[in-house]
Design a protein that fits this description.
The complex is a heterotrimer of chains A (311), B (40) and C (293). By secondary structure, chain B is mainly alpha-helical. Helices cover 78% and strands 0% of the residues of chain B. The chains are: A alpha/beta (311), B mainly alpha (40), C mainly alpha (293).
Chain lengths: 311, 40, 293
């Protein structure tokens, strides 16, 4: 299991030479992330709270797979409000990479990560242009997005890895990726750019030492599970989601009312479009309800487990 | 000593039994049921 | 001026050899470092300021020493002389300590204890010296007034694995984990303190007494929902009226949550943690006890 941690410098140099990705815009399909890198990125994303954070990932290439060995934070915040925030940290990145090589860590940068607190894992317009730049000058390079808020509320890491197509490329029709709620104030940005990139499948790996350490931490894990309360931690996020849902309902209702006047004129595909919008809203609301019920179930179980014993 | 630890552990149950906890718990319970009802 | 300077330096040297520190300092402080007549380079001025501060410190005279270390503060930022910078840091920390500015002194002692170099100029920096600086940082943090900044420094020190080897570690651990400190532990800690750290305050308590009573009061507030002042006084080792006064002051200063019923002579502690969060914390404690079994 630990062979993956060995870095084959000659092999990597050869891949860099051949550049198989240069002719196929859909060359890369998978990402494998080490437990260490995942933990560091999630911890960094959560430390940013509601502010977007940014960092880079080191690793190597194996066929059509990016392998991420480690990650580190960049001294940059608020990535969604500035074009190519990375530029502020170039000097830091160069120093860090050089120092790393001096300590015998030969992996190159293979990607950048940033957080979308509370609005899901996808690439915004700014992200797409940043990633296109990266693919132009730093390939092989991929983009990773983490949503720390949804990670807490859903109880699993909300994460997405992406590659952009070159400018003007028309991708074949994508199979729909897993449905996710896009907030109203971001839906425009999402809609315009979602055809300019595609997702990579993410898997994880850990070393024998990681296994040993995580086993030792197991005791903390089950205690955390029994003593956590998803309802308490995600209150702001849930109320934000519900208000977003209300806005969408409002918008859908206005459009419906407006269309009711001319409904007999409305072509059938428009009616289908309206329904799909309402279907999405229904799906979002049931998603919220299900997460709330999960939280409630854990509270009721805890109550019967720890409070029902009469002295 | 193990038995003593076990008995002290059992004496710690119920973990919390205050009026305020009951209120907070039921408040959270009802809030969540309300959200679920609204979603339905 | 040149001749005066030479005589002063010579005299100061003699006083210093006879360990008449303040006289030596006064002799040197008479040198006019800002005279327009003679060109005095920055390094010489910085060296003299630090030397005078050191001499005053030998006599624990923090007031005069501070005057010269403040002069040195303006000069040290442009200096690149490691020895002078190092000495400045050490003396400045000691002055803050002597002036009972324990919070700042702790930060500076901790910064000194983290230096990587083991050789500065011809001065050897040995492990014992660094350990001494670390111990001084812990002592000053414990003596500092309870509050968020002190808690942050406590956490930093507690997580610094070098501290676990210090003699003072048991006290640091109890203070950080907000456990009640018993009289024997406080007396043992008191043995290690310097004279100025044991000086009496106007209310006839030493700095240590004040720090320990406040600490124990905060720890008690985590343990009890309410307690009579009779019991609280016994727990803190002071009379009930004193306990009530200190508790009232801490509540007013927002360093403790609670209310005092003077008719019943009982203090009710409050905890702003939500009941549901307290519930989760109790569950953590229960699971860990189960895990231990």
């Amino acid at each position: 299991t630990d062979a993956i941690y060995f870095y084959d410098e000659a092999g990597q140099a050869q891949v860099q030479q051949e550049k198989p990705w240069a002719n196929d815009p859909h060359f890369f399909h998978k990402v494998r992330i080490s437990a260490l890198a995942l933990l560091k990125m999630v911890a960094h994303a959560r430390s940013g709270g509601t502010i977007e954070i940014m960092g880079v990932m080191q690793g190597k290439i194996d066929g059509d797979t990016f392998i991420v060995m480690d990650a580190y934070a960049l001294p940059v915040e608020g990535t969604e409000t500035r074009v190519n925030a990375q530029a502020d940290a170039y000097e830091y990145m160069v120093d860090y990479s050089q120092t790393n090589k001096q300590t015998g860590r030969l992996e190159n940068l293979v990607g950048w990560y940033h957080s979308h607190p509370g609005y899901g894992c996808w690439l915004s317009g700014i992200d797409v242009s940043t990633q296109m730049l990266n693919q132009q000058y730093q390939d092989p390079f991929f983009a990773l997005v983490i949503d720390p808020t949804r990670t807490v509320s859903a109880g699993k890491v909300d994460i997405g890895a992406f590659r952009t197509y070159r400018q003007g490329y028309k991708p074949p029709d994508e199979p729909l990726s897993e449905y996710q709620t896009i907030p109203l104030n971001k839906i425009e940005d999402f809609g315009v750019h979602c055809k300019q990139y595609y997702s990579l499948d993410i898997t994880y790996f850990k070393s024998s030492l990681d296994c040993h350490l995580l086993d030792l931490l197991w005791n903390k894990y089950w205690v955390n599970t029994l003593s956590s309360n998803p309802l308490l931690g995600s209150r702001d996020y849930v109320s934000g989601q519900i208000s977003d849902l209300a806005e969408k309902l409002e918008q859908a209702e206005n459009q419906m009312a407006h269309l009711r006047l001319g409904s007999f004129l409305m072509p059938s595909h428009r009616k289908k479009d309206e329904e799909s919008q309402l279907t999405k809203i229904t799906r979002d609301s049931s998603k919220i309800a299900v997460e709330q019920v999960h939280g409630l179930m854990s509270q009721v179980i805890k109550d019967s487990l720890f409070n029902s014993v009469c002295p | 000593s193990l038995l003593r630890q076990v008995s002290s552990l059992l004496r710690r149950l119920p973990v919390i039994d205050s009026e305020k906890f009951r209120d907070d718990f039921l408040m959270e319970f009802n809030d969540t049921l309300l959200i679920t009802y609204l979603a339905m | 001026e040149e001749q005066v300077l030479v005589i002063r330096e010579k005299l100061a040297e003699l006083y210093e050899s006879e360990e008449q520190w303040s006289k030596a300092a006064q002799m040197l402080s008479g040198i006019d470092l800002d005279s327009g007549i003679r060109m005095v380079d920055e390094k010489y001025r910085l060296t003299k300021c630090i030397q005078v501060a050191r001499l005053y410190l030998e006599d624990d005279d923090a007031v005069n020493a501070e005057a010269f270390i403040n002069k040195a503060s303006f000069l040290v930022t442009n200096s690149s002389h490691e020895v002078l910078i190092w000495q400045y840091k050490v003396y400045y920390a000691r002055i803050l300590d002597l002036k009972r500015k324990f919070q700042e002194a702790a930060l500076r002692y901790y910064e000194i204890s983290q230096i990587e170099k083991r050789q500065i100029g011809d001065e050897e920096i040995d492990e014992a010296g660094l350990e001494q600086a670390l111990t001084a940082a812990v002592t000053c943090t414990i003596l500092a007034a309870a509050g968020p900044q002190r808690s942050r420094v406590l956490a930093t020190l507690y997580k610094d694995e070098r501290c676990s080897k210090l003699k003072i570690y048991p006290i640091l651990q109890k203070v950080y984990l907000e456990r009640i400190l018993r009289k024997p532990e406080i007396d043992a800690f008191s043995e290690e303190l310097k004279a100025h750290q044991k000086a009496l305050l106007p209310d006839n308590f030493t700095v240590l007494d004040r720090a320990m009573i406040e600490h124990n009061l905060l720890s008690a507030s985590k343990l009890y929902t309410n307690i009579s002042f009779e019991e609280l006084g016994a727990l803190l080792g002071i009379d009930p009226q004193k306990a009530e006064k200190i508790a009232a002051r801490m509540i007013c200063e927002d360093r403790m949550m609670g209310s005092i019923d003077q008719v019943e002579s009982i203090i009710h502690f409050e905890d702003d943690t939500e009941e549901l969060q307290q519930w989760d914390q109790q569950i953590v404690g229960l699971c860990q006890a189960l895990n231990d079994i």
